[in-house]
Amino acid sequence: MGFFQRHLPIIVLIVALLLIALGIYGFVQTQRELPARDLTILADEQGSGYYQVAERYKALFEARGLNLTVRPTTGAAETLQLLEQGAAGVALVPGFLTSQVDPHVYSSLGALFDEPFWVFYNKDAFAGEPVRYLSQLQGKRVAVGLPGSGSQALALQLLADSGVSAENTTLRELPRQAETAQMLSGELDAVLLLDAYQSDAVQTLLRAPSIALANLAQAGAYAARQPALKVVDVPAGIFDLAKNIPADDAQLLASTANLVIRRDLNPTLARSLMKAEMLL
Questions:
Q1: Does the CA dihedral 156-157-163-167 come out positive or negative?
Q2: Of 222, 202, 225, 224, nearest in space to 115 by CA
């Protein structure tokens, strides 16, 4: 009796086990490629530029029969914490904070848009003098955003570089709606805000007659000290030619808004996010 005849049952068993293993592997890979029907994106406060971009993602996903839930957060710190905990598969994160993201756990799908750092001030609080230096905010009532937000992280860093701190200035930690309301009522002298042009707060403050946009004379120096920032030139009237908004040319600082995903996110969903990015 030949070798194969003697060991035929064992050979058949081994082949069968291999086929079963290959079948299981193929099934797992197929299931991994099939997109889940639900996904959550973390998107900062309601009304923010991030939240509005996330809503546009939601509409694009719904057109493909997928459900994207937009979950607001109090800022970048909570966003990164929730992403780490697996509460969501994707998030919008300020570019200057992406260095805090573990590359073994998360992956960036790239920068979506420039996110300006706006410095708005009440004209009356500065006796009609234009604000060109952050050091001019010393001794004033300044809103810097909520703890853990990208706005506050960047604002406190730039203010400290300019000699402005809680020891010589009233720094207020407020959500965007409260910041905007108190600027309009005169309860604040200035607000520092990292957000997209489309955000509700930016739109309101740009059009308020009593409020002006600071033209930062040292924008280039700040950008040189912080590689994740760059200088953005804003020509007078760029936002509204008829009403000449802003009234004067301005130099702003800007970071980038990055789309960050968990590395264990379904590959098909990741590709869908990249395709949607081109349609925003």
A1: positive
A2: 202
Q: 141 has which bridge partners?
A: 170
Task: Give dist(CA 275, CA 266) in Å, integer.
Answer: 15
Q: Is pLDDT larger for residue 7 or for residue 132?
A: 132
The contacts found for 247-250 with CB under 8 angstroms, 24 or more apart, are 247/212, 248/130, 248/215, 249/215, 250/213, 250/214, 250/215, 250/216
Q: How far from 135 is each of 71, 110, 142, 159, 210, CA to CA, in Å?
A: 36, 34, 12, 7, 21
Element (H, E) at 65: none
Write down the number of H helices and E strands in the chain: 9, 10
Q: What residues have CB less than 8 Å from 91, skipping those under 6 apart?
A: 41, 42, 43, 79, 80, 82, 83, 259, 260, 261
Cis ω before 147 (30° cut-off from 0): no
How far apart CA 120 and CA 242 sit, in angstroms, is 21
Reported confidence tier of residue 179, pLDDT bands at 50, 70, 90: very high
For 145, the token pair is 């955003």
Strand partners, 171: 142
Who contacts 112 (Cβ-Cβ below 8 Å, separation ≥6)?
Answer: 53, 92, 256, 257, 258, 259, 277, 280
Overall pTM > 0.90: no
Residue with tokens 């808004």: 257
- Please say if the pLDDT value at position 214 is more than 70: yes
Q: How confident is the model at residue 202 (pLDDT cuts 50, 70, 90)?
A: very high
